[in-house]
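ok so i was messing around last nite and threw this chain in just to see what happens. nothing serious, just curious
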Amino acid sequence: MKVLFVTSETATLYKRGGLADVSYALPVALSNAGINVSLVMPFYEGIAVKDVTCVGQLAIDFDRRRELVFIFRTLLPHSHVRVYLLRHPLLNAYDDEHIAARFAFFSKAVAQLSLYSEGILGGPYDIIHCNDWHTALIPLLIGETSKVGYRERETIQSRKSKTILTVHNLLYQGETGFSITLKLGFPKSIFHPFMTPLGKAVRLMTEGFEYADLVTTVSPTYAKEIAGGKHGKRVVEVFKKRNDQIVGILNGLDTKLWDPSTDRSLPIHYDAKTVTPAKAKLKIQLQQALRLPVSQVPLFGFVGRLEPLQKGLDLIARAVAKLPPEEYQLVVLGTGHKRVVRQYEKLTELHHNISFVHTFDERLARRIYAGSDIMLVPSKFEPCGLTQMIAMRYGTLPLVRKTGGLADTVTDGKTGFVFGSYTSTALLEKMNQAITLYREKPTHFAAMMAAAMRKDFSWQHQVKEYIGLYRKLLKSS
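result:
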């Protein structure tokens, strides 16, 4: 079985968010399980790789011009996974006003690469595994037929390779003007436009839903939420017509990368047996580094993007404003929306027990995971989330909202704290419960930390599910 894993980012080469972590760990896990897997992504200017070789060039017709894309090959660091990097001026950067056109071009290049890859590029591929809206056009572009509205009519191309689209976050769907169809040079009739105040538009993610052989997402609960219409009625309509379902497979965690017993960022190493004394010392060191008072009150942490639409930062700000400052401390680490940055800068001016670090600092993030008592993840929605898994791995109890992968990974009162409604009142109530438990029942709190550390979130379970899906798809052809 040969699998081509297509992504816009992967850890160790280029990372913007959680997709990069999955796009590294899952191909490596597949390779370790004996699957012949290759990864393809753009060769951004910021990527620095050693031992890279140009293996050929590909002619792509885009925006009424013939473009040459150079193909480079290397290995994913610390693995046996082949990586193909596509170099072209359109693929130099990730994010600007041309982002939709950039990934439409990338998708067309990958589609042609997959069709003409025999021999030199490791193909042909049995499975093309696409990830998020950036790569969702590939099933359409390789010649897949629509899975919506009538019995599937297979083409030679679709018999050659089966396609999977994994949704990591439905908040971002790659909406763009209908002129993208002209740039691609494909018939307008195979797209599914809708009207906006500026005219016709398409969502690249939805085109993937129309054409991919199978759609998966990154947790069972998020799959149910999508199918139930919580994240858009259009998606529900598509899947009702497809007569199939979105398959939810929980993301795993790279347990070698996230391991408090070996983490080089930590001055003290520990495991489930030594977590309590080690974390007490790490907490003091973190408080000193952040210029917080050295205190025995519970220290809440937040590590992540300052995303106002998803991450629940508005709830945190309102909740902590109602907590007595002598009962808790809070550290927030992240970058993002200017409005959120200003909000948290003001909070630190008003409260001496709150520290806000506006940067991306991997070393500090790991120290916050290890030195905090409770990790806040009060997301409005969360497809899977790695923050709560990492927190538990480091013996820090996650306080989460019951949604998506958070609901699938945290058990209230056993491995963390869970609240329901998306309100600051509900968050405040659960924070008060956590503070009370920490103060009045330290033995119970310590037992929960040890239980959280014993949870197994490694990829070895989830990779079996993906391999099972691959085999099921190939049998159906």
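not much to say yet. The CA atoms of residues 32 and 388 lie 25 Å apart.
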